[in-house]
Predict the 3D structure of the following.
Amino acid sequence: MTTPSFVYVTYIATTPEQVWQALVDPKVIRRYWLGTKSDSPAHENISDWQPGSRWEHRRVHTGAVDIVGTVVEHTPPRRLAFTWARPTDFDDATKHSRVSFEIEPQGSGLVRLTVTHDGLDDDPKMLAGISGGWPQILSNLKTFLETGRVLPRS
Amino acid sequence: MDHTDKVFKALADPSRRKVLDLLAADNGQTLGALCEHLDMKRQSATQHIDILIDANLVTAVRKGREKLHFINPVPIHEVYERWVRKFERQRLGLLHDLKTQLEGHDDDNA
């Protein structure tokens, strides 16, 4: 295991199955995978999520693909891992970083979701963009699963 | 204790804020590395870090024989959404109302 670049943790009052659904179902993903600004486009992640399959991070309205990667692990409802790269770098595995989601039930209706992103240290531009993005997405995901709404955008 | 209370309590101490600054500058540090920059005994540093972990502001990840500490900005983001951005919106709304009142009409193009 390489040293992670980032580790993000949030506790969500829901079930592991609901969190899992929110990670793999594009119809759910597009509800919370938004930026802070009202004009930043909603995204959805498209794949069959089988290890070795390609996944794409697409803008909902234009279909433009911003990020691509390969699914590494698919263990519902506990672990999902995939690589992360610019579309132009898909064929160069050395330019892929790696994202993993770990879902742990905490008892009393609480789930701990840990997002680890590693392999970003050689790509400061991607690192800067992502470090601001994950907290927003995880806050949105938490609010969405707990209330059915997302945080208001400015 | 309510989770938001834990976050504010954890942030209410300069040593703990310094730990967050140290991790923001260089994420994934060991306790030993953090202690080099903190003017306190290892035991006190551990107590401060435990409070940060309990507030979910720091996550400890075991890697081999080492334990690495990562800043977790998600609760800070939630505090920002709840306690900062909400009031920014209200202030902008007040300015809009003031403008409407002074100009005597609601101009959407303004």
In short: Chain B touches chain A through 19 residues (CB under 8 Å). Residues 73-110 of chain B form one domain.
